[in-house]
Write a structure and sequence with these properties.
The chain is mainly α. Helices cover 74% and strands 1% of the residues. Strand 1 and strand 2 form a beta hairpin.
Amino acid sequence: MSQAPDGSRLPDTAAGAVPAQRHSRQDAPGPQRVPAPRAPERTVLGYHLPAFTSMVVIGVLSLLGLGTLAVQLGGTVRVFFAEAALGLVFAAATLLFGFWLFRRIRPVRAPDLAASLVAVLWGLTAATGGALLANSALTGVWSKTLGLEFSAVWGAAMTAPFNEELFKLAGIVLVAVAFPRSVRGPIDGFIVGALVGLGFEVTENLIYGLNTVIQAGGVNGGEAVAQSMVVRVFLTGLGSHWAMSAVAGTAVGLLAAAGWLPSGRRALGAAALVLTAMAMHWLFDSPLPAGVVGIVVKVLIDFTIAMAVYFAARHAHRRRVRRALAREGEEVGLRRSAAVALARRRARRRALHDVPEAERAEARRVQALMVDSAEDRAFARTV
């Protein structure tokens, strides 16, 4: 929590001066306005009720998703245990690198660790488990209504953009409600969305790797898993689930910044971002353009869209935080240039080098408080 909210600075009384008493206009004659009583916020185990409810929903659905994955993949894992173990090694490496990278690219400072872990957990379990069942059901509908041949070609493009993106989007919203201070604006939504997509992508890569072993008849299973993982990480992974979910997550950040009561323009922008994420997924799964060149083109398009959204959100975030830091600096007597520089990790580290070792921990704490207060001020929720 911020230690320096707006208007809460205490006056300096070191010289013995006592601030003059502030008179309220309620002392003036005439009719008085009596403020309406505020209902106390409901809490459970110290958590606000919406946050607690979201955490319960995340926990229950993650367990259900994990159970679904265990039922669907348990037999395959038992038969091809060595191949599954190899796939897990690739999955763990992808997860660790992606987790570090996406948390590192958030401007100003890293996102909350707990929120990051929960986002990845949702993508690994709840989103993939739910999407596995939903995709199977909707694919069956397409096969019966549109024919097996058409469904085999276009089924993925007609199924995954809706089912998978909605399951991932639901997790982003739940994380934003469960950790309201971790999703204060569009860039936070982008990062949480990327982490949810990362978790989904890691589990999906493992599923596809095992399916490749089955399709190869169990022959050279290790090689089949390795080839599948390399293609899905180093070729298609550049513009896969993390990119789509990051764009959709930016929409959640827009709504969260408005206290979930957005203006019409903001709501329209959020809807456009979600539809863009679905369109990115449709393009990714579309059979057109075909071939390796087609795949590369689609991946690059999705990656470019995600990067355009990221840089726009990052620029807006930095601009607002710098303005807030300038005001923070004015209130504590810090030079504007020194205060604004706190928006950069490297500048904060350089500033600490000039502080004596004995005072460095306290200086680091003060830096963190100023940055936290500035982000609170920069993203005060307004409709």
